């Protein structure tokens, strides 16, 4: 089939043991549900072609477009702390890479496109609900300015998948800087395949970290930079109340993007111990644990890279430790700096971290909604008459009042124009996040009634998260329950 997609596949240069060549399995009755036209254009693809019969056939996995060399990648991973030597793309197939308008190389991958040699007992398929959730939440994250995989399309398969019940099936087309994970390195390290490790590290240096490639110790620089990007990423998650839910090493991209939107969720009422995933019974991946888990995962990456860091093992460990030391300061700077911006504080001063921490402590004690507290603080920074919208979020509103006195004293030290400050705060404190109750209602409408209206409306609101959208203000509201007790199930 002729295709206007200029595939340019760099992985084809990697040895065959990195992947299995496998085409997607055709589906019974493909129907394009949604195409992300803006993303298609960003990638230099023709959205009209993608929406047409040939494009839809490709996005469903029913036809392999010219230039596409479909593969399923091998990887391993620590899942909830336990090492699994072989995972791999069990229901995802990489169609190929394209170079976008900005010169960045991007993967185009189908998820839910049929079995592969890595499927183990799985069917290789995805259900419509999780596909729409991944589409919506990943696009919301992108609009929030957080590095993430993107969603190019969702296609209904016309087939049912067997989960607890029979559910409509779908395929999502995911776009990523790459799909190389910490677990990809672990796969080869576990097999003692130093040659493959080096080829993979060189590939990642070339693709994602060209600045490190020229350094004196490129693999150490690579590890430090992966750690730095991960530190930035997790700080940004915390600053919007995002809980990834399943931070296994196979779900950590070495490119620093958020990947795998299975059991993720956004916090409503602030509580750092929040866990949403029903499979995370010990709270390993709770909101506040995410930085330390990221570092734990990076330590597993460091272990995998040891043979490349130095011949002598003691020296290799010292090199790894030196590289991992990049994580903590980078995280602290990103998180503290981000909190200061959320509070409208100017140049850092002593006491800023304590001021921010005290607000968070009061929010936790008073079950204040995370997103609304910070958003409503923007107006309060402009005029104290707007305090009511913040204080009313606290079980004990006087807890906010006491804190606000200290906050205003601190703001006065900056001497910044209050309208400019409020505008700057609105640019970092979103009004709209994908609220769990809205996401669930959207999925229910799509699955039970084939109604994608709520999906479209929610996606439109979330594409402008920092703008006040008065007509759609209901999407900013917290659920009546405060979100307590909400549980997600692993995306299937
Ligand atoms: N229905 C399925 N059929 C086959 N393999 C599956 C299925 N569901 C999950 N897997 C595999 O189980 C492993 C863990 O699944 P997990 O839910 O973390 O990943 P995923 O959502 O399928 O993919 P990704 O991490 O690429 O977003 C992966 O190797 C995945 O390919």
UniProtKB/TrEMBL annotation:
Q: Which reaction does it catalyse?
A: L-threonyl-[protein] + ATP = 3-O-(5'-adenylyl)-L-threonyl-[protein] + diphosphate; L-seryl-[protein] + UTP = O-(5'-uridylyl)-L-seryl-[protein] + diphosphate; L-tyrosyl-[protein] + ATP = O-(5'-adenylyl)-L-tyrosyl-[protein] + diphosphate; L-seryl-[protein] + ATP = 3-O-(5'-adenylyl)-L-seryl-[protein] + diphosphate
What protein name does the entry list? Answer: Protein nucleotidyltransferase YdiU
What is the source species? Methylobacterium oxalidis
Which gene is the coding source of this polypeptide chain? ydiU
| Active site (record annotation) | 250 (proton acceptor)
Q: Does the keyword ATP-binding apply?
A: yes
What cofactor(s) does the depicted protein rely on? Mg(2+); Mn(2+)
Where does this protein hold Mg(2+)? 251, 260
The protein's matches in Pfam families, at most eight in alphabetical order, are given as: SelO
Stated EC number for the protein is 2.7.7.-, 2.7.7.108
In alphabetical order, the GO MF annotations are:
AMPylase activity; ATP binding; magnesium ion binding; manganese ion binding
Q: Which family does it belong to?
A: Belongs to the SELO family.
Positions binding ATP in this chain are: 88, 90-91, 111, 123-124, 174, 181, 260
Keywords on record: ATP-binding, Magnesium, Manganese, Metal-binding, Nucleotide-binding, Nucleotidyltransferase, Transferase
Q: What does this protein do?
A: Nucleotidyltransferase involved in the post-translational modification of proteins. It can catalyze the addition of adenosine monophosphate (AMP) or uridine monophosphate (UMP) to a protein, resulting in modifications known as AMPylation and UMPylation.
InterPro entries with a match to the protein in the record: SelO
């Amino acid at each position: 089939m002729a295709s206007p997609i200029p595939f340019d596949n760099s992985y084809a240069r990697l040895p065959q043991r990195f992947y299995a060549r496998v085409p997607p399995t055709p589906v019974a009755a493909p129907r394009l549900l949604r195409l992300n036209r803006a993303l298609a254009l960003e990638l230099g693809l023709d959205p009209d072609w993608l929406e047409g019969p040939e494009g839809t056939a490709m996005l469903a996995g029913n036809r392999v477009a010219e230039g596409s060399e479909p593969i399923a990648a091998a990887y391993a991973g620590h899942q909830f702390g336990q090492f699994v030597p072989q995972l791999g793309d069990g229901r995802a197939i990489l169609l190929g890479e394209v170079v976008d308008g900005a010169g960045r190389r991007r993967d185009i991958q189908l998820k839910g496109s049929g079995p592969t040699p890595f499927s183990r007992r799985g069917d290789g398929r995805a259900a419509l609900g999780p596909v729409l959730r991944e589409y919506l939440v990943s696009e919301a994250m992108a609009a929030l300015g957080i590095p993430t995989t993107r969603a190019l399309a969702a296609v209904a398969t016309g087939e049912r998948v067997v989960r607890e019940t029979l559910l409509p099936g779908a395929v999502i087309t995911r776009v990523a800087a790459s799909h190389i994970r910490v677990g990809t390195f672990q796969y080869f390290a576990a097999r003692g395949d130093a040659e493959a490790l080096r080829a993979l590290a060189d590939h990642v240096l070339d693709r994602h970290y060209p600045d490190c490639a020229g350094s004196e110790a490129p693999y150490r620089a690579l590890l430090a930079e992966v750690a730095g990007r991960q530190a930035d990423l997790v700080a940004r998650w915390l600053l919007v109340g995002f809980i990834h839910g399943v931070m296994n090493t196979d779900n950590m991209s070495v490119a620093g993007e958020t990947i795998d939107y299975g059991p993720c969720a956004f916090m409503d009422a602030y509580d750092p111990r929040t866990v949403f995933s029903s499979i995370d019974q010990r709270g390993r991946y709770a909101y506040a644990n995410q930085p330390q888990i990221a570092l734990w995962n990076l330590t597993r990456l460091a272990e995998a890279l040891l043979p490349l860091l130095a011949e002598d093992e003691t020296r290799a460990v010292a090199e790894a430790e030196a590289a991992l030391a990049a994580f903590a300061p980078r995280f602290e700077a990103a998180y503290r700096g981000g909190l200061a911006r959320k509070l409208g504080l100017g140049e850092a001063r002593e006491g800023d971290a304590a001021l921010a921490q005290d607000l968070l402590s009061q929010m936790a004690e008073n079950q204040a909604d995370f997103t609304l507290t910070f958003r409503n603080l923007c107006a309060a920074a402009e005029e104290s008459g707007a305090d009511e919208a913040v204080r009313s979020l606290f079980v004990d509103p006087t807890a906010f009042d006491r804190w606000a006195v200290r906050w205003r004293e601190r703001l006065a030290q900056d001497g910044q124009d209050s309208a400019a400050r409020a505008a700057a705060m609105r640019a970092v404190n979103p009004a709209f996040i994908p609220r769990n109750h809205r996401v669930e209602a959207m999925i229910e409408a799509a699955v039970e009634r084939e109604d994608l209206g709520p999906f479209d409306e929610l996606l439109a609101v979330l594409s402008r998260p920092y703008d006040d959208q008065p007509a759609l203000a209901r999407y900013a509201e917290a659920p009546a329950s405060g979100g307590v007790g909400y549980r997600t199930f692993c995306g299937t």
